[in-house]
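[recover] target loaded
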């Protein structure tokens, strides 16, 4: 049994001037979105159709190796950040918890309590330490404690260098702290020769200052260094030849690849493999054939071969002309069906209006029911436009109705409803590209950790789509000052008999 469509008409009521919504059930074609013949442009015998499932991006790797590669770097960062952040706190708290009994055993309980006492100056240092720790926590959370949005094939040198510097700093401070507290307490014979609690608080505050400076260094190297554009990178996509050019800062090759993919998914148009060859109308899709007749009854095979070669040569010479007319005809058909679609959408939106509290209710409908009511009046025009632009595989009836209901609930205009069908960018608008993990292969002759330079060339490849990225250095801009004489800004009128002035 075929599904049904609902059509809505609005007629005025002579009694109270209100509108009555009449719903009519109409049969719907079962072949919506499935009766499109895709012309892929594959001409060789070994070519494959774009309908082949193997040509589309596969599921991302979800094995243990991929998970370790994705989260191991973040886990190491979290552990080192936690150790570095808790070190100053531990240096202040451990003596109070009795982790260093040499202070009391060597000098006696009374002297040990006196050394662990905290006066006014010590308390001021503790307050300063608390605020420094709060600032360090916020800064570490903003720079380091972030979920990685890209898994790189090699180490990020600057980030790894900063983490190594943090590890060395914590190890050196802890080593000096333990040796200074334990050895000094064991060798001291008087209370003046040992370390008091005030010195330990100052030592912890010194470690916090060092960590703040390391964090500043990390911000400069990881976040700020690449912001100033030094190169421009041109991205060319194959097979459709879409290209963009951007200014880019000093990045390594692998980080530049991540930056390119961010731009690609947010600014490039959707790659439609069904438009590799321009659809030709049935009236122009006619093949020319030649037939030869032997009127003299003799053998004219040589004449036929020469005639065939001449005909093929004439067809080859006129192929550019045929392509020009095909592109012109296709653009005309697209514009024509787009105009019909916009007109049908505007007329369909006039058949529905929001129900207010001060009105007499007619037949109240929720947004989804209203979308089902007005969709049939524009379905044919939309289907023809999607068919000629080869977008039917991307849009189903359910997704269109859901989008239409969302537009109606938010009081959007017909052109806002048609935006996903008329605008083909960005790439992430395509539902097939909306995946949690996108796997790309980075191909480059240089080491991936090296910074990009003038003339660098690398390629990103995902199945049949490849992005060729070429890097050029921005020139040095020499700006000179030129002073204009104020007297040169005065003019006189030149009268000429041949002019109308």
């Amino acid at each position: 049994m075929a599904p049904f469509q609902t059509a809505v008409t609005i007629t005025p009521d002579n009694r109270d001037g209100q509108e009555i919504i009449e719903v009519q059930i109409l049969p719907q074609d079962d072949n919506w979105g499935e009766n499109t013949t895709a012309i892929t442009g594959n001409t060789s015998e070994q070519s494959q159709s774009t309908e082949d499932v193997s040509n589309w991006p596969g599921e991302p790797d979800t094995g243990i190796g991929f998970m370790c590669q994705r989260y191991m770097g973040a886990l190491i960062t979290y552990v080192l950040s936690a150790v570095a952040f808790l070190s100053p706190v531990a240096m202040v708290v451990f003596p109070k918890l009795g982790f260093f009994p040499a202070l009391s055993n060597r000098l006696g309980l009374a002297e040990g309590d006196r050394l662990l006492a905290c006066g006014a100056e010590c308390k001021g240092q503790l307050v300063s330490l608390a605020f420094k720790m709060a600032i360090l926590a916020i800064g570490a959370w903003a720079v380091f404690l972030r979920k990685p949005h890209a898994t790189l094939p090699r180490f990020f040198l600057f980030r790894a260098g900063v983490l190594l510097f943090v590890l060395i700093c914590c190890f050196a401070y802890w080593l000096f702290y333990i040796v200074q507290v334990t050895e000094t307490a064991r060798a001291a014979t008087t209370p003046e020769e040992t370390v008091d609690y005030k010195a330990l608080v100052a030592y912890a505050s010194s470690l916090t200052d060092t960590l703040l400076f390391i964090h500043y260094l990390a911000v400069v190297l990881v976040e700020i260094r690449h912001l100033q554009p030094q190169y421009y990178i041109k991205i060319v996509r194959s097979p459709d030849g879409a290209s963009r050019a951007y200014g880019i800062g000093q990045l390594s090759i692998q980080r530049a690849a991540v930056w390119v993919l961010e731009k690609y998914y947010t600014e490039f148009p959707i790659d439609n493999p069904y438009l590799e060859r321009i659809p030709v109308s049935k009236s122009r899709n006619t093949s020319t054939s030649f037939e030869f007749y032997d009127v003299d009854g003799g053998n004219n095979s040589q004449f036929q071969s020469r005639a065939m070669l001449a005909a093929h040569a004439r067809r080859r010479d006129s192929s550019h002309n045929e392509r020009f007319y095909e592109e012109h005809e296709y653009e005309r058909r697209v514009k024509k069906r787009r105009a019909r679609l916009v007109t049908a959408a505007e007329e369909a939106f006039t058949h529905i209006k929001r129900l207010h509290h001060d009105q007499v209710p007619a037949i109240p409908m929720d947004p989804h029911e209203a979308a089902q009511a007005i969709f049939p009046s524009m379905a044919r025009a939309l289907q023809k436009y999607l068919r000629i632009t080869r977008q039917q595989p991307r849009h189903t009836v359910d997704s269109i109705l859901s989008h239409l209901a969302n537009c109606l609930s938010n009081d959007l205009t017909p052109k806002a409803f048609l935006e996903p069908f008329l605008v083909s960018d960005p790439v992430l608008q395509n539902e097939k590209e909306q995946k949690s993990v996108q796997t790309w292969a980075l191909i480059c002759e240089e080491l991936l950790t090296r910074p990009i330079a003038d003339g660098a060339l690398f390629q990103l490849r995902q199945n049949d789509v490849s992005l060729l990225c070429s890097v050029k250095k921005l020139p040095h801009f020499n700006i000179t000052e030129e002073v204009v004489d104020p007297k040169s800004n005065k003019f006189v009128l030149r009268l000429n008999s041949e002019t109308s002035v």
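[recover] notes: The mean pLDDT is 76.
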